[in-house]
Write a structure and sequence with these properties.
Blueprint: E1 2-9, H1 14-28, E2 35-42, H2 52-60, H3 75-80, E3 83-86, H4 89-98, E4 106-108, H5 109-112, H6 131-163
Helix pairs in contact: 1-2, 1-6
């Protein structure tokens, strides 16, 4: 099983949408089995539903976040993931510092899309006024970075299996 973990702050908007959309893209490409796509967050209030604007945006994309509940990222999740996709440089730096064993498996979503250094802004910072811009950034980055993310995850899985 190839595992990809999407991480943001609070796990109520960006990472749930990114994970759901990425899983949707896998299904569209005929790869619905053999993959585990999930999300988690930093600074999480556990078991909180997705933000209402995230649920509305997801529904417009044909995605369902109604059963989503926030989870705090932890060592078990990170160690089990073949690839960890984050929204901001601060997420990458913090996770690599706290979990050095994950270095080399953490990538910014914007970088995977070829948008070097692009961060996906947290819509909570603007009281969700421009949340639609955030959703569009996620969709564009997943679309543009899809093949790269798949290849990175598959190659890391192959490396992990060789080591074990």
């Amino acid at each position: 099983m190839i595992e990809i973990l999407f991480v943001c702050t609070a796990n109520q908007f960006r990472s749930p949408i990114a994970a759901a959309y990425f899983a949707h893209k896998l299904r569209e490409n005929g790869a619905s089995t053999g993959w585990a796509i999930s999300s988690a967050g930093t600074w999480v209030k556990a078991e909180t539903p997705a933000h209402p604007k995230a649920m509305m945006a997801a529904a417009q994309l044909g995605l369902d976040l109604s059963t989503h509940r926030s989870r705090e990222v932890n060592a078990r999740m990170l160690i089990g993931a073949d690839l960890i996709v984050v929204m901001e440089l601060g997420h990458k730096e913090a996770l690599e510092y706290e979990f050095p064993q994950c270095k080399g498996r953490i990538v910014l979503l914007g970088e995977a899309a070829g948008e070097h250094g692009i961060e996906i802004d947290d819509p909570a910072r603007s009281n969700f006024v421009e949340s639609d811009v955030t959703v569009q950034s996620i969709i564009v980055c997943v679309d543009k970075g899809f093949s790269k993310l798949v290849n990175l995850a598959e190659s890391r899985r192959d490396t992990n299996e060789t080591i074990q």
